[in-house]
Amino acid sequence: MFAFTALAVALTATSTMALPAKRAEPGPWCNGLGAGAFDDVPSFTLAAYNATGPNANSTGAPLVLGTAGAIDGAEFWHFITEASWPYAVTYTSISLVNGTLIPNGEGTTPAQATTVDAGNSLEFVARNSAEPSKGAQIYCAVADTDPAGHGTGHPFLAVNGDTDSFSLCQSTFENVVWYKAAPNRGYNYDSCYPVKVQLIY
User: Fold this and answer.
1) Count of other CB atoms within 10 angstroms of residue 131
2) Which residues, 6 or more positions from 101, have their beta carbon under 8 angstroms from its beta carbon?
3) Of 156, 161, 162, 188, whose CA–CA distance to 175 is shortest?
4) First CA to last CA distance, the chain
5) How do beta strands 111-113 and 100-104 pair?
6) pLDDT class for 149, splitting at 50, 70, 90?
7) Which stretches of 90-168 are DSSP H helices?
8) Closest CA relative to residue 90, chosen from 72, 110, 73
9) How far apart are CA 58 and CA 9, in angstroms?
10) Which residue, of 72, 130, 138, 179, has the fewest CB within 10 Å?
11) For residue 91, is pLDDT > 70?
């Protein structure tokens, strides 16, 4: 009897352990983006992949956070091409946590994601009182699932449920990523071209 009971317990434990854990569903900021959407990635960088023209590789132009201005007690940062940023990179990686982007860097000021409206860049405010985990929950990542096999293999970044409305445009000194680029917004609209923003990890 003992042998039968032990066997039953062992079989139950084995069958329970064999079941995969249920994947956590992404939050509402990923709604409409399909089964390949996810909203938690511990560490990555971003790159802008030209959506209509040639690319030198499958990742695209590396992006870093560059300054977008400052006021008393706060600095603003947004994504620019690494090639147009002549200084040391302050925030060396990004995390996607529960729908918000969190810039990471040793000894850096905490930076919190802000909302992103049409015609604006993907911006962060850095100040000592910032709470990065409480940034705007508007971001999602989407696996590259091109059925024709022409994808890059890297997930796309979405903001406001949209992966298709990013552009790279020339500002005074930098090439900046804008969401739904529009004329008369302080950058050279004629220089804009569509890009996919990719997570590289």
Assistant:
1) 8
2) 94, 95, 113, 122, 124, 135, 139
3) 188
4) 54
5) unpaired
6) low
7) none
8) 110
9) 51
10) 72
11) yes
Bridge partners, residue 135, by sequence: none
Q: Are 76 and 125 in contact (CB under 8 A)?
A: yes
Q: Is the pLDDT of residue 103 over 50?
A: yes
Neighbours of 82 (CB within 10 A): 15
Distance CA 108, CA 65 (A): 12
Backbone phi and psi for residue 4, each to the nearest 5 degrees, phi listed first = -65, -45
CA angle 85, 46, 33 (to 5 degrees): 145
Residues belonging to the chain: 201
The torsion defined by the Cα of 30, 34, 40 and 46, in degrees rounded to 10, comes to: -90
* Sequence letter at residue 115: T
Task: Say what the pTM is.
Answer: 0.86
3-state secondary structure of 152: coil
